[in-house]
Hints:
The protein is an alpha+beta fold. Helix content is about 65%, strand content about 15%. The protein has two domains: about 1-25; about 55-110, no CATH class. The termini are far apart.
Amino acid sequence: MTSELLVGALALAYVLLLGWSCRTLPGERWQILASLPRSKNRHGEWRGLNLTYYGLFQANAFVVGSALMLLATASMGLSVEQTLLVMLPVMGLAVPSCRWASCNHSKTGPSSAP
């Protein structure tokens, strides 16, 4: 019964989060979560790294998904090493593809015009 409550609570939380994010995040003020300064050019302008809400949700998905997979496989008696043998190659493909998708998504906006 506790397992079903956990799954139900997580499902409800993510359904609510997805509903909120689909309505809110496309708005202009919700595109950038934070900006980290990286360097200053000779004209005094800063170049920085923009952190997006989409990136935050992708990172949360990786962390929660990984934790749940470790928990589920441990409950079946598999060791952490065995689980990591499966998780790391998958994440090795998934993490760079999310970055590529995020970069391409952000370049499609009107602000990227030359």
